[in-house]
Design brief:
alpha/beta; globular; 2 domains; TIM Barrel; three-stranded antiparallel beta sheet; 13 helices
Length: 314
């Protein structure tokens, strides 16, 4: 199997998670410029906004970047058309079945890495022509599945053998990267660590909420409407739980509250009354740093960890 970096033309095997209200052009461009794969979040965006975002990213970097399509938002066809018109060659998908879009993406000689919650779905994606899969454990922020990153990554890597498996959820330093490698992953997807970056185009209050958080700062809501999501404990969480427990509220209605609230929190910095998301690994994030420093530090630490593990062979 070709190395992930060679397959995608990137320096480091790291993706920036497509975080609503956070993975905007400034962050995407910074991650790609630093050698990773920046991924534009498009959930809730209209096609022409996505077109403008892509063009803005191209002003920030000439290195590879991609875009995420949230299938359930209802305008996936229109968004993918715009992305392909603008020359996007790398896609991730989530929140729905991506299989109907594979032919269109591959016809444009682009690659698609669906984000999946189980080894079974990862295998299904491989069997149907995906170029790779991102297996995301429940430690992640935002929308999640029910499997942990450790169990999910290992089981997916054991049965998905012809395409890269990318581990996501609970990875924020070099130790996490090495753990992902040990479980069989070809690379990692990171979200929380990039929230606390200088280039993340979000309010300082949002970043500070992450820096101040610990490993018990989040809670999962949305399971009853089949849209579980990890978020910080605040007034918005109380409302989210109430909506989730209301039998008259379906997933679409819950998302109609969730997505705009996420965007407002990131934009306006109200971390008390709006939804704020980050992963359980938040306790490792103690400062806001440049993206380039975050990536280089993570991989330097990963190399140190690998060298230190050599002692176990003796």
């Amino acid at each position: 199997m070709m190395k992930l970096t060679e397959l995608l033309g990137i320096e480091y095997p790291i993706f920036c998670g497509a975080m609503g209200g956070v993975s905007r052009p400034e962050l995407v461009g910074a991650v790609s410029e630093a050698g990773g794969m920046g991924i534009l979040a498009t959930a809730g965006s209209k096609p022409e906004q996505v077109r403008a975002d892509i063009r803005q990213i191209r002003e920030l970097t000439d290195k590879p970047f991609g875009a995420n399509v949230a299938i359930m938002t209802g305008n996936a066809d229109a968004l993918i058309d715009v992305m392909l018109e603008e020359g996007i060659k790398f896609f991730t998908t989530g929140a729905g079945d991506p299989l109907p879009y594979f032919d269109k993406i591959h016809a444009a000689r682009a690659k698609v890495f669906p984000v999946v919650p189980s080894a079974r779905v990862a295998k299904k994606m491989e069997d149907n022509g995906a170029d790779g899969v991102v297996v995301e454990g429940m430690e992640a922020g935002g929308h999640i599945g029910t499997a942990t990153t450790m169990t999910l990554t290992r089981q997916a890597a054991a049965i998905v053998t012809t395409i890269p498996v990318i581990a996501a959820g609970g990875i924020a330093d070099g130790h996490g990267i090495v753990a992902a490698y040990a479980l069989g992953a070809a690379g990692v997807q990171v979200g929380t660590a990039f929230v606390a970056s200088i280039e993340a185009p979000i309010h300082d209050n949002y970043k500070q909420a992450l820096v101040d958080a610990n490993d018990t700062a989040t809670v999962v809501s949305g399971s009853k409407t089949r849209g579980p999501m990890r978020m910080t404990k605040n007034a918005a969480t109380v409302k989210h739980v109430e909506l989730d427990e209301d039998p008259s509220v379906d997933l679409d209605a819950l998302e109609a509250y969730t997505i705009p609230s996420l965007v407002r929190a990131a934009r306006d910095g109200d971390t008390t009354n709006e939804i704020v998301t980050f992963g359980q690994i938040a306790g490792l994030i103690t400062e806001v740093r440049p993206v380039k420093e975050i990536i280089e530090t993570m991989f330097a630490e990963a190399n140190d960890v690998i060298e230190s593990l050599a002692a176990f062979r003796r």
